[in-house]
Amino acid sequence: MAAPPRRRGSRDAPTTARLEELAARMDPPAAVERLRGRELPAPLAAAAAALVEQNMRPFRPSAARVGEAKKCVELRKAETQLLVLRRAASAASAKGDADAAGAASASSNPLVGFAAWQVVKEETVLVAYLLELQLEPEARGLGLGSEMVHEIERAARDAGARGIMLTVDSGNAAARRLYEGPLGFEVSPVSPSACAPPAVAARAG
Asked: What is the mean pLDDT of the chain?
């Protein structure tokens, strides 16, 4: 697995209000939810896993993909934290039985995008490891991805983490432009894309 890019430094991250403002501007509007993995309804986890599969299909052969069932398990782990973007009406409806409400909202495809991360120790340093940042095509280019990363950065700092780490498929040029450009991530010197032979680096994720 590729060693993740490392954040150059940190700055004051925008508050959740900025992310909520951007989500509310969508047509139809979306709402932002902060959840722990154990709070994630199974149908919503399935929708999130399906979004990962949809977005990553162009970059990973089937043998290299995690699989939706395994991704659901990862997303619902107690240590996983999530920012979820859903259509506002669906987000408001999911206040009763979590799985029942999740099944009802998932049937109308309410998921706009999500980010998932865990606070872990990397070589004795506490960091936030970004597991996924996925958006539906209509939610891209609006600043939502950047604001989600800023929000994760703030949450990570509150948890005592020193930065954010992640992996990016080497062929995902749009994602690399986002992380290595305005967000200021750097490729780790031990990333396969930086140190592996070209044939291997081309496949590194």
From this structure: 80
